[in-house]
Design brief:
This protein is of the alpha/beta class. It has one domain: Rossmann fold (3-Layer(aba) Sandwich), CATH 3.40.50.720. The protein has nine helices and seven strands; from the N terminus they run βαβαβαβαβαβαααβα. Helix 4 runs parallel beside helix 5.
């Protein structure tokens, strides 16, 4: 009898999900934006990064082999529309991570500070939608960032909470306005990013320890977790008008 040795079956590697597509990350020089760019590039996409800090943007672009960069303040409507106008060709996806929540006692805010906190994030999404309407392919998508932590009423969070709960409604309506382009929202709890570090300062390690002890996942959510969700939303063409929570179970225990 002749013994025949069979080689293990060779499976074809999974083709990159975003091969040949172009992903724009607005606010892509650090944190969630940079990790999303990194994952999109690993999935075969050409990446375009924007940010305010020129030097940090250059460094990020080297890390992800960005096709191009553009340095501007995303909350400046004229600069944002100029960026869209300068895009050479159609793009496939836009991820928006620019902007930060406004945490301050509402009764101590000036009228201008309150107005900015209530409208800045919403107007950014609206302006991105305006620019994307003629630049994103019909099969493409917009992915915005929101939050979950401010959904419950708490002292000092009136402005942030109001802006947070308004985003899902805006995104759902934009999904109808821009169809067939898809529009979705990622609502994150605490994510261990440079932005979180700047907000918490010396309390950062205390917050990390608290989350590791209490969250059902027993670890802190990182930028890579959110980036993985963002790329999935880009790739899944059945998703639009939805809000996707990612907080490690934070809402269940806090």
């Amino acid at each position: 009898m002749t013994n025949t040795t069979h080689s293990p079956r060779q499976l074809d590697p999974r083709p990159p999900n975003l091969l040949g597509q172009t992903v724009v990350v607005i606010g892509g020089s650090a944190g969630i934006g940079l990790e999303t760019a990194r994952r999109a590039q690993a999935e075969g996409a050409d990446v375009i990064l924007t940010g305010r800090n020129v030097e940090r943007l250059k460094e990020a672009a080297l890390q992800v082999n960005a096709q191009r960069t553009a340095a501007f303040d995303a909350n400046d409507p004229a600069a944002l529309q100029a960026f869209f106008g300068d895009l050479a060709g159609p793009i496939d996806h836009i991820m928006v991570t620019a902007g930060a929540p406004h945490y301050s006692p509402p009764l101590q805010m000036s009228a201008d500070e309150a107005r900015q906190g209530l409208t800045e994030h919403l107007l950014l999404a609206l302006e991105v939608a305006r620019g994307a309407a003629t630049k994103v392919k019909a099969a493409g998508s917009l992915v915005f960032m929101g939050g979950t932590g401010a959904r419950r009423p708490r002292l000092g969070l009136a402005i942030a909470s109001t802006a947070t709960v308004a985003m899902p409604a805006l995104v759902a309506n934009l999904a109808l306005e821009l169809a067939p382009i898809r529009v979705n929202l990622i609502a994150a709890g605490f994510v261990d990013t440079p932005l979180s570090a700047s907000i918490l300062g010396r309390d950062l390690d205390k917050r990390r320890d608290e989350l590791r002890a209490k969250l059902p996942i027993r670890r802190v959510v990182g930028p890579g977790d959110v980036a993985a969700l963002a790329v999935h939303i880009m790739n899944n063409t059945a998703l639009t008008g939805a809000t996707f929570d990612i907080d490690g179970g934070q809402q269940l225990v806090f």
